[in-house]
Amino acid sequence: MRLAFGLAVVMSITSPRQVTAGFFRNHLYVTLGLCSLAALVAYHVGWPVAGGIACIAAACSYIGAVCWLYEQPSAGRKVTVLVGAFSLAGALIATAFQGLLGGDLSVAAYAIGCLNPISGGLILGLTMGAMFLGHWYLNSPTMQIAPLQRLLRLMVFAIIFRGLICALGLAMQLGTESTPLTAGAMFIVLRWLIGILTPLVLAWMVAKTLAIPNTQSATGILYVAVIATFTGELMSLLLSAGAVYPL
Question: Considering the entire predicted model, what is its pTM?
């Protein structure tokens, strides 16, 4: 649901005047698959509310794809916004079901808990969305590079935003314990190296590559960035499973 939210944000902010309709249609099918999978998982673990919202997001994805199929950009973008809204709602509800938004949390801890799926969804969605858009230049080589450059700048913002949330979570987590997290120190370092610092370096490399310009090479670098962010977010989920705050 986080990834579906991030991809919906990408499609909502990308101009249909600069990017062909097939980009939006095809990747709404991606959110359709993601939301359908999320619904199956939610129902399997006994979260019917989250599963129902995931089903609604999947239905909106299909409707949006139909809108783009018939070249209706205005309706397509509106439905895409709904996909993002329902996907984010599902991610937040799943976070609450995991117990990360309940209990006697402070206002700051509750805020960080809510921003955790938002920041995670943005870094995943913007990185993968930029890779998808870079790949789309193979289908439409005459498109302007400006949309990809814009997504790249937003991707850098998402990485920094995610890093800030995880840094605050780590600081607050360490503040609640009498001893530092020595057992997980190595994994926390790896999480930061792979999931935060590596995508930043790769984003810089993509920016330099687009200055040539060479969208094909930039897309290859973005493939690596997708792997890095997915690995980093997976490590974040594993580390946060036994913690009060996102790491």
Answer: 0.91
